Structure formats: C-alpha cells, structure tokens
Amino acid sequence: MISVIQSPEVGFTVDRDTVCSGESVVFTDHSKGENPQYYWNVTGRQTNDFVFINGTSEKSENPVIQFNGYGEYVVALTLTNECPQNVKDTTIIVRKDPEIVEVTWPVSLCPDLTTGKALVNLENYFRLYWNGNPKEAVWKIEPKAGMTGTVDFLPGYEADKEYPQVYLQAGATYEVSLTLKGASVGGVLCGDPSKLTIHKELNYTIRPGMLNTWPVLRLLPDLGSGSMGMETLK
C-alpha cells in the first residue's frame, strides 16, 4: 500500500516585528503538512547575539527568541517530511540605544606658545558607538557661568560633529556636555535616557605670575566629581 502525504507548507506569524535590544519575539506556527520537522534559523550582524528562551529551541514548533544586538535579523523556518522541504522567512528589526564610553584622559595638555590656547580633541576623551542609529551628536562647550573664556571650533569639527575639535583659552572653567538621541519602538524609548547624556567640567587655569610664559598643563581627572582639573608643570 502506498500512502500519499501532504507536502509541508510553511506558515507562521509573529507577535511583533520591531523590538528593542534585549526583548523577545513569539513565533506561532500555522504550517500545513503531515509529521513535519521544524528548524528555525536566525541570521543577523553577529552569530551569538540572540537566544531561544522559555524552554524553546531551533526545533520547536512555536519558539520564543530574544534578540540582544541591533539591526535586521532574518528568521527562517524550514519544514521537512518525506516530501520536499519548504522554507519561509521574515525580518525582525532590533533597535538599540547609542552608547557613550569614556576613555582615559590625556596625561598633559599643552597650550600654543603664541596664542595661549590648547587644542582639545574630544575623540581622545570619548568613544561613541551608534549601534545602527543616525550619527546625531549634540555637543555644548562653553565657559562656566560667571567666567570668561573663548571657544573656537576647528572648521569641519563643529559642535554638531561626532567628535569636535576646539581651541580653549586658558584662564577659565569650561562646561562640556553631550546628548545623543535614543532608539525607540512605537514611541517608547528603548533604554535609560540618563545614559545618553554626559556633563563634564574642564578647569583650565594658569598660576599668577606666569601669564607671559605659557606652561605645560597637566590634566587631572577627579574620579569623584567627574571633573577634570589642571596643574601647571614647571
């Protein structure tokens, strides 16, 4: 006797197709076919930034997958039985906040002997990881309230660039702030807004009696207050 069985025909739905990093998607099977074997395959930017959760696996009928990276993930279901296999896929979009990472401050900062200004390259202080978001950085650098100082951005490295470069005049405390735009899904932010903003102070002063001889200034990070101080080296 010869049995005729139904060839597999893949069909499934997802509870959502756009999530924040760290969230999960439920895949519900609606496939047709007799005695199918399931295999779910996920491809994305990296191979290890997703995980099957809630006791499910790549061989489950209705898996739950948590996405921990960012970008587009293609999830494909392959069904097999004694007949030729059938495949269907869908795309899941994962959004993640950009990240601000503070790096080691430089050992010293030397002003120009002619102008008395020091060049500050903010790429030496921070690393910005955009995680698929537009590179929209909002920097603000200005003398602290009640103080007088000058802020001169280099052409092409202004305050709306990823890493500004700026000349600062000695003799003032400068406030440096950075704000990034967070990722969101359906109008809800994906992460902690407080991690998208930083505020620093740069104390750039010269000892009395040394105004006619530009010194080498050492940058001293204050780990407790998050500010940077300067001392003059003889």
What does this structure look like?
The structure is a single chain. With 234 residues, the chain is mostly beta strands. Helices cover 0% and strands 48% of the residues. It contains no helices and 21 strands. It has strands at 12-14, 18-20, 24-29, 37-43, 50-53, 64-67, 71-80, 86-95, 99-102, 108-109, 117-121, 126-129, 137-143, 151-153, 165-169, 172-180, 184-185, 188-189, 197-204, 216-222, 227-233. The protein has a 4-stranded antiparallel beta sheet with strand order 1-3-6-5, with no helix packed on it. Strands 2-8-7-4 form a 4-stranded mixed beta sheet, with no helix packed on it. It has a 3-stranded antiparallel beta sheet with strand order 10-20-21, with no helix packed on it. Mean pLDDT is 84; it is low at 207-225 and 227-234.
Determine the mean pLDDT: 84
Distance between the termini: 100 Å
Largest sheet: 4 strands, antiparallel
Q: How big is the Rg?
A: 28 Å
Strand order of the largest sheet: 1-3-6-5
